[in-house]
Structures are given as structure tokens and as C-alpha cells.
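Late entry, written up from scratch paper. The run itself happened at the end of the previous shift, but nothing got recorded in the book at the time, so transcribing now.
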Amino acid sequence: MKFRVAAIQMTSTSDREANLHAAEGLLAEAAAGRAEMAALPENFAFLQAEGESAPDPEPCCGADAAGARGDVSPGQADGAVTAWLRAQARRHHMWILGGTIAERQATGSPDGRTFNTSLLLDPEGRIAACYRKLHLFDVSIRGGPEFRESKTVAPGDRPVMAETPFGPAGLSVCYDLRFPELYRQMALRGARVLFVPAAFTAHTGKDHWEILLRARAIENLCYVVAPAQVGRHSAKRASHGHAMIIDPWGTVIAEAPDQQTVIVADLDTDRLEEVRRGLPALGHVRKDLFPS
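Output as recorded:
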């Protein structure tokens, strides 16, 4: 079975209306390319300087499909971006991974922090999964800019997987990519594809982005789909780009140039099973030495 996915690359800014207009065109392009699922990058609706809070964060997302994650009362009204995502999924009758949005905490936060949340919507516009970024980008690299994501973002508290037509999918976001134990746990729980929407910095991305993505695919024998931000978002922020789709052998089967664009590739169950039969590493994991 083949399942066609699109990874979208954007140059988002602080202009939410312009960002959504650009994303709408890119989703339409993905649909025209017969994609059954399209994945948007991290912070697709708002991106300026690191540490700047997004305006009008979304209400806490809810679980309106089996297996979705979220803490919300029934009937919770959608925020503007969530409503837009639902409408796009229904319009194109396509699965959509809503990169990340800024989501309010259910019980409020005394320090005003929000979650950096990835929403997966099915073709009927229902939320199939809600993942809150676990690992926050607090770094100060010599020769590069300093980032303190935890100033404005609260961490999630659990890994999240979702059922898709291709099979179980593991959700993650950007800096999560540097923590292989997250992906191994999802692979051992049956993940066939791993999603990594990102706004990887230009400074780290040139040396680490492709290597880390290919490593996660190789060690977990999974497809990896990584939509990305690219180019300059403001005077204080630029992203590496190079959105990629990678097969379970670690081969890059689609890669974006340095511009807003859509890349498309087919995830193939026969290819996945062929690689896993020939290299059955997941079955050789020593769980007795490394219990979950």
C-alpha cells in the first residue's frame, strides 16, 4: 500500500493573515499533487523572534476523535487557526498536520506560557491527535544566537502517537529531534512514520538537520516526514529549511530547495516491510537492559 504525503516549507513572519494565505496556497498545491496528507511546519501561523509570544493563542485543544490527546470540556470553541485547519482539511478531504500552534494551558498559567502544539486533523476536520512539544530549545551556542524557548512555552508531559491510513504515526517537533529515546519508544510502540515539523535554526541546521533526520529514520526503520521553515522571518530569526521526506533505509526521497514550496513522496508499506525484514534491529532491542 502506498500513501502519498506532502511536506510544506514556509517563510512565516509575524503577519498571521499573510502566513495563512501562503499556507492555503501550499495546501492546495499539495492536494493538486494528490497528497493524502500534508504537513505544515512549526509555527506556520506566526513566527518572528525566538521568545516572542504569539498573539491570541488558541484555546486548549480537545479530543474529538478516538485517541486524540487534550484536556478540554465538550463544546470548547475553536480558536481562529484551529478553525482554519479544520476548514482546510474538509476542503481538500486530506489529512493535515498543523505544524505547531500556540495553545493556552487548560488551567491557565501564572507566567503566561503556552504550549507549542501540533494538531493532526483527519479529512473530516476532526482532531485525531494533539501533541505538545516535550523538549524546549534553551541553548546558547558560541558563535550563534541564544534561545530560551521556555520563557514563553510550557513543555508537554507525554509522547503522542496517532492512527493514520498508513499506520501508527509518531508526533514530535523540531528540538525533539535531538532526543533519540523519544523516537525509539514510538518505534517500539509500532510507529511506521515519524513527523518532525520544525523551524530549525540556520546556525545549527547546516550541520545537524539532515544527519539527525536520517539517523532517526535509520535507527527506527521508519519513514520520516519533516516540513520546515526557511529563510529570514525577522531581523532576529532565520531558519535552515531543507524540508525532507526520508525512507526507512535513511535515503532522502524528497528535499525542498531554499524557498516556500511543497515536496511530495509516497510512503510504501512494501518498502517498509522489506527494510525491516532484512534488518530486523527493532526485534533485537535488549529490553532487559533498557526497560521502558
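Confidence is low (pLDDT under 50) at residues 69-74.
(Scratch paper discarded after transcription.)
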